[in-house]
Specification:
- By secondary structure, this protein is an alpha+beta fold.
- The chain is built from 26 helices and 22 strands.
- The strands form 7 sheets. Strands 16-15-14-18-19 form a 5-stranded mixed beta sheet.
- A hairpin with a 3-residue loop joins strand 18 and strand 19.
- Helix 6 (about 50-75) packs antiparallel against helix 7 (about 75-95) and helix 10 packs parallel to helix 13 (about 255-285).
- It is elongated and about 140 Å long.
Length: about 750
């Protein structure tokens, strides 16, 4: 079943989450119509390879054209219209930046996998629950409503200022008319009446000036309150969601909504500023005793400028955190002399600023590292598909400086991966007479000089962003706080859902909790130390918990990914628990679990029944990446043979726990169907008999554990058939167990 088919079967609350990240940048119609083709492409790799991204974009347009031809024949007018619109979008928005559509599709597929994983969990994790708080959603709606109301109030005040200007022009005209009359005419009764009318107009002008200033003051107050409270909270929430998304959590949205709010507020403030300038212009033409403009206008203008400064400073954000294209799912880990990308956005989108803001990137000022490459670029609205005012640095490289002694720093691996740095950005905005200096920084990054440091560096990034909201605590690991175990387990599940397409269920998380704590615990409120997670070796082992888990992630990604995504690898289950699960099952029932003693190893255990009715269990020596590189794991399960004393070789694996026939579970993952057994004379091309690798173990009478499948012995089906015809089971056992002498 395709991933999209699984998505469509979700409950409505999960479908609503899916709906949130499909928009005009990547319409859901295309995801639906091209589901299988989209899922068969490597969008993750294309997101970091421009040539590959261009090819995929061209192929995507071809696929859309094919769909357009099909629906044209069906005369589906609505779908024809939508597909034409999508085709125009793909050609117009992404032709100059094909990697952007690859990033969008890759993120959408990843988020689908995360939601599918979340849907399979019995309960929502504490972190994800907090991010989807209904109070937060209500506040978002309130912010948008208030911003819209403020915009309307500013526009209404514009009409009041225009009315005030018209009123003053009428007063000015009538006043100058009276002033132009002769002295005798001024003493007439008619003129005296006109003077009284002018006094009344002046009173009205005074009232209207006070009213306009009062309305401007209310608009400024509303903006101030909104910025100080709800908008600030919204921005902080978005930054927190970004932190969580960086370590595998739900994709963070809402930046476009924030941009809309920031832009409308900036437009309203500039509108109020123009209104105050107009009042100053009216003041130069007419003033009087008790005039409110010279008293109130300077204070209001100072407040408007102050709010504009703060609004611009808060609007300068890191939209996409630093990330090496070679490791897209490990952001904020940067290797020296390897390029990384980072994207910034100004949430105030004004056409006057397009290509007018130049951003400079630097690294923190400890002088240990410098940035090489293009580190000054102009923000523009052309590179982003949504037209935001942004800039993306794609060719920055961190370089480690030599020490005064002439050699590079030589800190140990723990010291390197716990040392935090930040990438800083600065620019200047000059607009309508205002000059505003802007600064922002990335979340803390970890510098490494060797890829072997990547696992521990990523552990540091996880721990930091899980444990603190502080975006710039570079001394965090001087005294790292403990983390709540329930939240940590949720983040560990995210590592699996984001990296290998399927998260962990409650049983698997329970096993990890026991492994971390050394006993069965209630982990809801338990606090786990950084040392326990990443620095202290597991009891009786030569590696840490995190190194063990990272090796499993690597094993899944490279060797058993389809089996993991299908949910056929139980994986995290202890030896004791697996025997409890298997003891009452049909003989030949087996399960797959990760080795607890070997890094990156997977084994299988099956249940058997002795002649006296006793239950026995057999576990094969774990397969590591070396063996799995030689033979796919699904083929190993299909072809695995055991030689029992006085018995012929047979495959003991019948049912995947709990009761799934083996071939039903793994059949689609076999590299090829096993050949019919043939005699040597039936050989293949050039007179040779086709050969296959067959994993074989033997179990002695006094052993319940099969020997190591040393195992992958080259044996064709036809040779195996001949052996069975001409040799006794004992002879076969002796031949298989003998070591091969070098030729």
């Amino acid at each position: 079943m395709s991933q999209w088919s699984q998505v469509q079967q979700l409950e409505i609350k999960f479908l609503e989450q899916v709906d949130q990240f499909y928009d005009d940048n990547f319409p859901m119609e295309i995801r639906h119509l091209l589901a299988q083709w989209i899922e068969s492409q490597d969008w993750e790799a294309a997101a970091n390879n421009e040539a590959m991204a261009m090819i995929l974009l061209q192929n995507l347009i071809i696929q859309v054209d094919d769909q357009l031809d099909r629906v044209s024949q069906e005369k589906n007018l609505l779908l024809i219209h939508n597909l034409k619109r999508v085709r125009k979008l793909l050609q117009g928005k992404y032709h100059g930046n094909p990697m952007h559509i690859a990033v969008i599709i890759s993120n959408c597929l990843r988020e689908e996998r995360r939601i599918l994983a979340a849907a399979s969990m019995p309960v929502q994790g504490p972190l994800e629950k907090s991010l989807q708080n209904s109070v937060v959603s209500e506040r978002q709606r309130n912010v948008e409503h208030k911003v819209s109301a403020i915009k309307n109030s500013a526009q209404m005040t514009d009409q009041d200022v225009k009315y005030l200007e018209d009123l003053q022009e009428e007063f000015d005209f009538r006043y100058k008319t009276i002033q132009s009359l002769e002295q005798n005419d001024k003493n007439s009764t008619l003129i005296k009446q006109e003077m009284l009318a002018l006094q009344s107009m002046l009173n009205s002008l005074d009232y209207k000036r006070k009213e306009v200033l009062s309305k401007i003051g209310r608009v400024i107050h509303e903006i101030d309150m909104l910025m100080s409270n709800m908008l600030t909270e919204e921005l902080l929430d978005w930054k927190r969601r970004q932190q969580i998304a960086c370590i595998g959590g739900p994709l963070h949205g809402g930046l476009d909504q924030l941009q809309n709010c920031f832009t409308l507020l900036a437009e309203s403030l500039f509108q109020v500023r123009r209104q105050l300038e107009k009042l100053d212009e009216l003041l130069t033409r007419l003033t009087y005793d008790g005039d409110p403009i010279p008293v109130q206008r300077p204070q209001l203008l100072e407040k408007v400028n102050f709010l504009l400064y703060n609004l611009f400073r808060n609007s300068f954000v890191v939209e996409r955190q630093p990330c090496m294209p070679t490791h897209p799912q490990r952001p904020m880990v940067l290797k020296t002399l390897i390029q990384f990308t980072v994207k910034l956005r100004l949430l105030i989108k004004l056409p006057e600023l397009n290509y007018q803001i130049r951003v400079k990137a630097t690294i923190d000022n400890n002088r240990r590292f410098v940035l090489c490459g293009t580190h000054v670029k102009a923000m523009n609205m052309d590179e982003s598909a949504n037209g935001s005012l942004s800039v993306e640095f794609r060719h920055l490289q961190p370089k480690e400086m030599k020490t005064s002694a002439g050699s590079k720093g030589n800190e140990g691996p723990h010291m390197v991966t716990e040392e935090l740095h930040s990438i800083s950005f600065e620019t200047q905005v000059c607009l309508y007479g205002l000059t505003i200096n802007l600064e922002t920084s990335s979340l803390p990054v970890v510098m490494i000089s060797n890829v072997s440091q990547l696992p521990n560096a990523w552990a540091s990034i996880i721990w930091y962003n899980l444990s603190t909201n502080d975006p710039q605590n570079l001394s965090f690991f001087n005294n790292p706080p403990a983390a709540t175990l329930s939240q940590l387990l949720e983040v560990l599940s995210w590592q699996f859902s984001s990296y290998v397409g399927r998260g962990l269920n409650s049983e698997q998380l329970n096993m990890l909790a026991e492994k971390l704590m050394g006993q069965q615990v209630s982990y809801n409120d338990y606090q786990l130390s950084w040392a326990k997670f990443c620095k202290e070796h597991l009891p009786g082992k030569s590696f840490t918990f995190w190194v063990w888990l990272e090796a499993i992630l690597d094993l899944i990604k490279k060797h058993i990914l389809p089996l993991w995504i299908d949910g056929y690898v139980m994986g995290f289950v202890s030896k004791e628990k697996e025997r409890i699960l298997l003891k009452d099952k049909t003989p030949g029932t087996f399960l797959l679990r990760f080795s607890e003693s070997n890094l990156g190893g997977i084994t299988f255990t099956w249940v058997d029944q002795l002649e006296n009715g006793d239950v026995t269990f057999h576990s094969v020596e774990p397969y590591n990446k070396g063996r799995l590189a030689a033979l796919p794991f699904a083929d190993i399960l299909r072809d695995y043979k055991v030689i029992m004393a006085d018995n012929v070789p047979e495959n003991p694996l019948k049912y995947l726990y709990p009761d799934i026939p083996k071939d039903k579970a793994f059949g689609k993952h076999y590299s090829c169907q096993p050949n019919e057994v043939s005699k040597p004379s039936d050989g293949g091309g050039k007179g040779y008999v086709p050969s296959v690798f067959i994993p074989v173990s033997k179990i002695l009478n006094d052993s319940t554990e099969p020997h190591s499948p040393s195992d992958l012995l080259p044996m064709s089906p036809s040779v195996y058939a001949v052996l069975r015809e001409h040799l006794s089971p004992t002879a076969i056992e002796t031949a298989v167990s003998c070591k091969l002498s070098p030729s």
